[in-house]
Amino acid sequence: MIAPVISFLVALLIVYWMVRYRPAWLPMDHPNARSLHQHPTPRAGGLAVMIGAAAGWLLASTWELAWAGPAVGLALISWLDDRYDLPIVFRLTAQLCAALVFVWLIPWDLPWSLSLVAVLAIVWVANLYNFMDGADGLAGGMTMVGFGAYAIAAGMAGDVSLMTSASCVSAGVIAFMLFNVSPAKIFMGDVGAVPLGFLAGAWGVLGWMQGHWPVWFPVLVFSPFIVDATVTLVRRLIRRDRFWEAHREHAYQRLVRMGWSHGRLLKVEIVLMAGSSTTAIALLHASEAARVVAIVVWLGLYLVLLILIERQWQTYLVTPGSR
To answer: How buried is 32 (Cβ within 10 angstroms: 0-12 exposed, 13-18 middle, 19+ buried)?
Structure first.
């Protein structure tokens, strides 16, 4: 397939140009109390990923208005957010509209209740992707592995169009990762995280509706992000925090604050991502009993990891000199 190669090359050229020349219009991410980096770093590298992916889609003629139109729209709005910090109401409205357009345009009829669930799920994935884009290589790694899993599963189902489209995204983000692993020379930014999260949710729904995979498949594939972001959101809602504001309370952020390097974190997260995605693919043709056992095992693993991190965090908080 030539399309993913083109996606990689286009994304590589753009992200290299961004890092090499740092044009004045490129937003800068300055260190603050809620960030994990120490030096001003350009963001919006996700723009290279999206342009690279779009180049591959156009070349292979896999572009479908139902998902490509909303994804491009979200990329444009998120680019403005990277530059001008748009109000949360505006951003959420745009994400809801994108999800509604997708559900409206796909050529299958869903009951209104399932349509509502699909819309909310897509919006949540778009946001959690943004929440989890806070450490070097993290969102890029999830994109590389997660969309690679989509491509494999779509290929197994005989859907060449979706397989190629997902491969273009994965290829484009590999080029970005060359400059995003620790120490990151550029960040993804909302322009990449939000539309990529939208595509993760939208293609997950699309694959389910087309019969390519069960509803649990995309959830298990992206479970390293889903579990961390969802547990953190619930915790903040219980405390009545301003959950939409930036913070450093995700499990991955706490690990870095407790002394983990970005490189170590990425290695562990890649193992989790690869493990959950490989399990999801293997379970597509497994027995129902095997699926239940595997999913329960993964839930247990996440529970143990969250408990261990929480215990270490509480110990860290009472340690003299901790922050």
So the answer is: exposed
Tokens of 17: 């140009």
136 contacts 182 by C-beta, under 8 angstroms: yes
CA distance 140 to 170: 9
Q: Record the pTM.
A: 0.95
Exposure class string for 161-181: b at 16+ Cβ within 10 A, else e: ebbbbbbbbbbbbbbbbebbb
| pLDDT tier at 187, thresholds 50, 70, 90 | very high
User: 152 in helix, strand or coil?
Assistant: helix
Confidence tier at 32 by pLDDT (50, 70, 90): low
Phi, psi of 86 (to 5 degrees): -65, 155
d(CA 58, CA 154): 19
Is the distance from CB of 122 to CB of 208 less than 8 angstroms? no
- Cα separation, 318 vs 307, whole angstroms: 17
Distances (CA, A) of 30 to 33, 37, 38, 45, 191: 10, 8, 8, 15, 17
Q: Tell me the residue length of the chain.
A: 323
